[in-house]
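From the pipeline queue, job 12 of 40. The input is one protein chain; the requested action is below.

Action: predict structure.
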Amino acid sequence: SPTGVGCIIVDASGQNRIIVVSGANGQVDRTDVDQAMPLLRQTRVVLLQFEIPMPVVEYAASMAREAGALVFLNPAPSAPASPRLLQLADFVVPNEVEAKSLTGLTITDFESSMTCVARLRELGARKAIITLGDRGCVCASDDGVWHEPALLVHAVDTTAAGDAFIGGLAAATVRGKPMADAVRYATCAAGLAVTRPGAQASLPSESEVRQAFREAYGQEP
């Protein structure tokens, strides 16, 4: 099968549109997860998206939890998911469109975004974060529901902002940071990513994120 391809178009405001041709991604099955189990048993974080078949995503989440790893679910591209999959994830991190696919709720303002992120918890997510682009994100956990503003930056390309966010979130969480601090670290990672063109090329280094965190919040990350 051909390698999966994502074709990205960026408009003048830095917003992107992505067309995905799944190719070999659509051929991933449970056997591939089983073959990866020796690696899963050694890892601390498993990050899953919806770019492989949904039954395999759910199976991988189940096997990751059995192996003792934290499961981060980024439900992209947008698609409905079973309550079981949400219950298997330690963190569920959709954007506004993806959150609607999971909950059936439309986000129109901060109040509706708070309702939507709380609904994700009701559906079984242990911790939920809905990213809102330049409006930051809303978060829900056992500690309550809150809004975290975005960094004030000039965005040139939003491609990979979500990837930077969830990568930063996972990196901070695995270092033992509480959720509020991990969300801020993720916010810094995403904020830096949108100031640069490209996808992988826009992702910041750890030292860059740590420096942005100090400047934004006046403390060590």
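Job complete. The mean pLDDT is 94.
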